[in-house]
């Protein structure tokens, strides 16, 4: 019966959006509807959590906006999302980067970048 | 009157309806073959007998086997009868009723057995407040007073007390159909439907219509 349930949602899943990890810097292109016009709004930040599976899967993006931490939770397969761009890949030791919430200033967005580590630098 | 299908609760999930993620219950409803049509001339009332599911032949008694043979219908797991009103479409023996009679946005009632909870106290069964947990109180989950004094001298009929909870036939009215999947015989009904997963449900067109459509 679980297979039946999954078959119901299968055509709504967008598997092209699954190629990012926790810690990655992403730019989420969201469709914003104003009246009958539609435009693209970009929300850029660090993915601090991915939760759920299947159609319920969601991810949280955190950014520092004018000195204030802002978080948005997106359902991954939402039709409101146009695309998800990965800016920078990171290596993290935690699945949920909630510790970033307690940090102030430069430290608040500091995650280990994959390209720097692979190049032997920190 | 109404149109009814026999079905099975599959479980819950969520789907995007437009731009919104909506919680839905997946119900496998039909196909339901018409096994018998009862008429007021012959039987004294108007009804239609429909079936659901598959049953092995050797599990059915000979008289019921004959009943299926007469209707030229494959043996079904469940047989149920539903009353037919004067303004309903005509049913013929051998017709197969499917979810195609339903459409997205339509209101339906869902009838089924609720989950059995066993013998439960008044707090769970009737949402009583119970007593304070501490400060010297000695009644915690009790129902309080059961009545008055010499008059009426008895406990009123219908007094809410502990007892068996659940496993009762209940109807949830005016649920909305979000999507109809005809090829899979599935209905996606918005929100929850009572009863356990795999339980039998009857899905019928809503009896109480909305005042403004």
Automatic annotation (TrEMBL), chain A:
GO terms for biological process: translation. Pfam families: Ribosomal_L19. The keyword Lipid biosynthesis does not apply. Keywords: Ribonucleoprotein, Ribosomal protein. One of its GO terms (molecular function) is structural constituent of ribosome. One of its GO terms (cellular component) is cytosolic large ribosomal subunit. PROSITE patterns: RIBOSOMAL_L19 (PS01015). InterPro entries: Ribosomal_bL19, Ribosomal_bL19_CS, Ribosomal_bL19_sf, Translation_prot_SH3-like_sf. Gene3D superfamilies: 2.30.30.790. Belongs to the bacterial ribosomal protein bL19 family. This protein is located at the 30S-50S ribosomal subunit interface and may play a role in the structure and function of the aminoacyl-tRNA binding site. This is Large ribosomal subunit protein bL19. It comes from Cerasicoccus arenae.
Automatic annotation (TrEMBL), chain B:
InterPro entries: Ribosomal_uL3, Ribosomal_uL3_bac/org-type, Ribosomal_uL3_CS, Transl_B-barrel_sf. Signal peptide: none annotated. GO terms for biological process: translation. Coiled coil: none annotated. Keywords: Ribonucleoprotein, Ribosomal protein, RNA-binding, rRNA-binding. It holds the Pfam family Ribosomal_L3. GO terms for cellular component: cytosolic large ribosomal subunit. NCBIfam families: L3_bact. Belongs to the universal ribosomal protein uL3 family. Part of the 50S ribosomal subunit. Forms a cluster with proteins L14 and L19. One of the primary rRNA binding proteins, it binds directly near the 3'-end of the 23S rRNA, where it nucleates assembly of the 50S subunit. This is Large ribosomal subunit protein uL3. It comes from Cerasicoccus arenae. The lineage of its organism: Bacteria, Pseudomonadati, Verrucomicrobiota, Opitutia, Puniceicoccales. The gene is rplC.
């Amino acid at each position: 019966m679980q297979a039946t349930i999954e078959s119901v949602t299968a055509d709504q899943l967008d598997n092209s959006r699954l190629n990012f990890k926790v810690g990655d810097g992403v730019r989420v292109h969201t469709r914003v509807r104003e009246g009958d016009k539609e435009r693209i709004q970009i929300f850029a930040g660090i993915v601090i959590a991915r939760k759920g599976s299947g159609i319920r899967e969601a991810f949280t993006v955190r950014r520092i906006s004018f000195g204030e931490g802002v978080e948005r939770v997106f359902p991954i397969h939402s039709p409101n999302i146009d695309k998800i761009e990965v800016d920078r890949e990171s290596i993290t030791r935690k699945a949920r980067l909630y510790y970033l919430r307690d940090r102030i200033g430069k430290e608040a967005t500091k995650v280990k970048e994959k390209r720097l580590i692979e190049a032997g630098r920190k | 009157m109404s149109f009814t299908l026999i079905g099975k609760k599959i479980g819950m999930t969520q789907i995007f309806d437009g731009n919104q993620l909506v919680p839905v219950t997946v119900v496998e409803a039909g196909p339901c073959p018409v096994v018998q049509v009862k008429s007021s001339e012959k039987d004294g009332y108007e009804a239609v007998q429909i079936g659901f599911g598959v049953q092995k032949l050797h599990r059915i008694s000979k008289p019921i086997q004959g009943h299926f043979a007469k209707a030229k219908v494959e043996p079904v797991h469940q047989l149920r009868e539903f009353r037919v009103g004067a303004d309903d479409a005509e049913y013929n023996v051998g017709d197969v009723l499917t979810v195609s009679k339903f459409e997205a946005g339509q209101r339906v009632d869902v009838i089924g057995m609720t989950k059995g909870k066993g013998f439960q106290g008044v707090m769970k069964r009737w949402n009583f407040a119970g007593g304070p947990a501490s400060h010297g109180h000695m009644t915690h989950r009790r129902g309080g007073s059961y009545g008055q004094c010499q008059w009426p001298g008895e406990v009123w009929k219908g007094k809410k007390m502990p007892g068996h909870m659940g496993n009762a036939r209940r109807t949830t009215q005016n649920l909305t159909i979000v999507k109809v999947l005809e090829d899979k015989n599935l209905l996606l009904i918005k929100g929850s439907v009572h009863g356990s997963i795999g339980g039998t449900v009857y899905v019928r067109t809503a009896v109480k219509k909305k005042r403004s459509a």
